[in-house]
Structure formats: structure tokens, C-alpha cells
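[Automated response] Your request has been received and processed.

Submitted sequence:
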Amino acid sequence: MAELFHRPTAPASIGSRRLIHFSALCRPARFACLPALLLAACAQNPPPGSPAAVGVTHDDAAPGPVYSLFHRALPTPEGKTAVLQLHGQGAQIFRCETQPTGRHWVYRLPEADLADSAGTVVVHHGANLSFEHVDGSRLLGEIADHVPSPVENALPWLLLNTRAYGKGALAGITQVQRIDTVGGMPPAGCDGAQLGQVLRVPFTADFVFFR
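Generated structure:
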């Protein structure tokens, strides 16, 4: 889990790698390629998601072509249908702890409310990657896969395998994607004065539920 919150060095250099890549392609006519370069860069960061209608695919939220040069896409569950998409807003909670590599903000749990397209909060997202619907149905999740976010300093996109409990909107849900993340990443480290302190880092994300 900890590696999901460590900032890799590679993404920080993507901008320079992107320029090198496109300049190599464009040496015969550098200025003719400038519009294509700008369009590709603009396609990088999808807007943090507007809730989608049930059964509607979310290909429009996919990262742009430059991101795809360096990262694989988050898998979509095979043979499953997206039946619900909610927009989440809340915080990722960390605690300053001493690790073998030094003092770090160690992930503890998420805490967020998930709203439908009308803005009504219908699900609470909490400890153990849980989702609890207002109708009493709930899920417990575990991370099956993850990819870096195309947005700088944002939480990774996740694919969760889930176990469903109770009758209601979440009954039969087997996978959840967390996509279109903004925020949620802690600072690189903490110091002795912060040891034992709790840090709440605001984030937003879209959650897509598959059955």
C-alpha cells in the first residue's frame, strides 16, 4: 500500500521526455508539428469527472496519448457492466511514523462521501476500502491493480475487487474503479516534531461500480 503514496521520479520528467519524443518525430519540419504537440499535451489531464449515466462508458475520461506512451491503462473488468458512477469528495488520512527508510506519512484510511449526478450523497467510503450505501448495502474492497494518475500529485487510479453484503444498490458489485483523481497525496516526509500526528489530505475522485 505504501508505494501508492510515494512520488515516483519518472512522472516529474515526463514533460521533458514528451518534448524529446515529439522533437525527434518532427526534426524534418519542427514548426509544422507544433499544433500536434499542443493538442497532445492538452489531452493529458481529463477534467475531474462529472458523474456519468448508468451503463454509459467512460472512455472520455481516459488519459491522453502522451500519458499512454509511458503508462498502461487501468484495466476494465472483463464481462462486467458499469452500473453506477459516483463523484467522491473527502480526505486521505495519514499518520507520521518512523519507517526503516526514515519518517514518512503512512496511509491509514480514506474518508469520503460519494454523490450521484444530482449531488445527493448516497455512499460513504471509509476504512478497509469500504463503501456503505444509504440503503444499507455495503462493499469491502482490496486493491487488484493501480496505475499513476495523469494529474500531477494526485492519487493513483485503482481497480478494487469487492465483496458485497446486504440487499440494495451495491448488491452483486464485484469491482470498483477509482479514476479521475485530484489531490490526496501526502508530503514526501515528516519530521520528529510531527511524529504521531495525523494528516488529512483533501481529494476528489470518480468511482465506477461494476456488476
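Summary generated for your ticket: The beta strands are 82-99, 102-115, 121-126, 130-133, 138-147, 157-165, 175-183, 198-210. The two ends are 25 Å apart (CA to CA).
If you did not submit this request, please reply to this message.
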